């Protein structure tokens, strides 16, 4: 999400996040933002047609612009269950897919598509984006990437800042599960999430750790803005961050997920992770400590390997089999999954993902069958549509 700080509430008012019944309940509210590539359905190549789609009425699920003309974003309203999240994600995708079909284009969500990075799509005609293009140059031109974010309600801002630090060592596991960007510029990059590598070039991208209060965090963001490093707080692209506008923690590390099931899975795990961290902090547990260099290394390993081989534990400083890291995460957040009523669904969806592999795995299999990148794009289009038409 390169746009505004908290788009997830576009179809909900700020007051919804301040429901008195939820004021003291971490994780009572959740929401999802998804970014989509706009593609030629025949060639699978990116096309700069987001403006056309934005001009098409979509009812209750109006999309919004992204940085490049070949990308578009949707967001759910405030939700309170995984069932609601699934329903809203499906509805938003259905409206967007319908609008795309009416204009003879297609949409697909994944960290990258094979055509990403081959040529600039141009920035969306918005003054903020024009200024970013002038300042960041090639960095902007190569941002044909799409992510998926989860927002989790955390009513106390100081707590939200502490939670962001506490969850950092676990975020690479979420990235590995979401990995969907092995190709860039019609090349197999060797990475499971090359989007992470492209994204890491922003001055505020990556892990963040060690803030002692919301005031310290906000002063740091203000310094970045005042110095001209970034233009506004919406350009804070940390793996996780407290929202600048709402009482939420935003989990931002994951690739776009073509399958709705994976969106629901990562939303459930993300909410449970935030709830678990908040509970630890409120009990007075010793804050998790890890060197920033090791946190960054853990991000890189997850982007490189996905669920194959090993991930890196930045707290202990050792490599662990990816399967063990996933198992440890589920065990760590288990009580929160139970409390949220999400255990059965998350375990079922996780077992399914582990059995079929990540999107990066499936994309490489699609390419291997005929050696044609359009087959990869078609797979992503079909998986993005999957479960939507039938619902």
Descriptive account of the structure:
Strand 10 (310-313) and strand 11 (318-321) form a beta hairpin. The protein has helices at residues 50-54, 82-102, 127-136, 138-141, 157-167, 171-178, 194-199, 214-226, 260-282, 292-305, 322-332, 334-340, 343-356, 359-370, 373-385, and strands spanning 30-39, 64-65, 71-75, 106-108, 148-153, 183-184, 187-188, 240-242, 248-251, 310-313, 318-321. The two termini are 27 Å apart. It is of the alpha+beta class and 391 residues long. Helix 5 packs across helix 9 and helix 9 (260-282) packs across helix 13 (343-356). It has 15 helices and eleven strands.
Rg (CA only): 19 Å
Largest sheet: 7 strands, antiparallel
**Distance N to C terminus:** 27 Å
Instruction: Determine the mean pLDDT.
Output: 92
What form results from the Cα inertia axes?
globular
**Tally of DSSP β-strands:** 11
Strand content: 5-15%
Discrete helix count: 15
Helical content stands at 40-55%
**Low-confidence region ranges:** 1-20
Structural class: alpha+beta
**What order do the SSEs take from the amino end to the carboxyl end, as H and E?**
EHEEHEHHEHHEEHHEEHHEEHHHHH
Keywords:
391 residues, alpha+beta, two-stranded antiparallel sheet, disordered N terminus, single chain
């Amino acid at each position: 999400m390169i746009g505004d700080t908290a788009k997830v509430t576009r179809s909900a008012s700020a007051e919804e996040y301040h429901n008195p019944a939820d004021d003291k309940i971490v994780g009572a509210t959740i929401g999802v933002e998804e970014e989509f590539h706009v593609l030629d359905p025949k060639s699978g190549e990116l096309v700069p047609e987001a403006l056309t789609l934005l001009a098409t009425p979509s009812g209750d699920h109006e999309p919004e612009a992204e940085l490049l003309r070949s990308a578009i974003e949707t967001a759910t309203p405030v939700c309170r269950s995984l069932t609601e999240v699934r329903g809203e994600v499906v509805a938003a995708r259905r409206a967007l897919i319908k609008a795309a079909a009416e204009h003879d284009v297609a949409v697909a969500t994944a960290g990258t598509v094979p055509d990403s990075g081959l040529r600039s799509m141009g920035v969306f005609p918005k003054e903020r984006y024009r200024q970013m293009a002038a300042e960041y140059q090639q960095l902007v031109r190569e941002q044909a990437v799409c992510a998926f974010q989860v927002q989790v309600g955390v009513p106390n801002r100081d707590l939200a800042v502490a939670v962001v630090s506490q969850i950092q060592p676990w975020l690479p596991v979420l990235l590995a599960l979401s990995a969907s960007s092995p190709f860039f510029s019609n090349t197999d990059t060797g990475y499971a999430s090359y989007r992470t590598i492209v994204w890491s070039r922003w001055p505020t991208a990556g892990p963040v750790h060690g803030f002692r209060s919301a005031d310290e965090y906000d002063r740091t963001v203000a310094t970045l803005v005042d110095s001209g490093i970034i233009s506004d707080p919406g350009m804070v692209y940390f793996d996780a961050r407290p929202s600048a506008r709402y009482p939420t923690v935003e989990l931002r590390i994951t690739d776009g997920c073509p399958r709705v099931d994976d969106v629901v899975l990562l939303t459930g795990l993300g909410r449970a992770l935030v709830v678990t961290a908040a509970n630890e902090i409120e009990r007075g547990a010793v804050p998790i400590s890890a060197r920033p260099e090791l946190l960054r290394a853990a991000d890189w390993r997850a982007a490189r390997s996905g669920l194959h081989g090993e991930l890196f534990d930045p707290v202990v400083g050792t490599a662990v089999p990816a399967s063990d890291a996933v198992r440890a995460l589920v065990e760590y957040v288990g009580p929160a999954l139970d409390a949220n009523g999400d255990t059965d669904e998350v375990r079922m969806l996780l077992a399914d993902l582990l059995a079929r592999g990540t999107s990066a795995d499936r994309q490489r299999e699609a390419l291997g069958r005929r050696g044609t990148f359009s087959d990869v794009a078609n797979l992503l289009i079909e998986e993005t549509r999957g479960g939507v038409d039938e619902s």
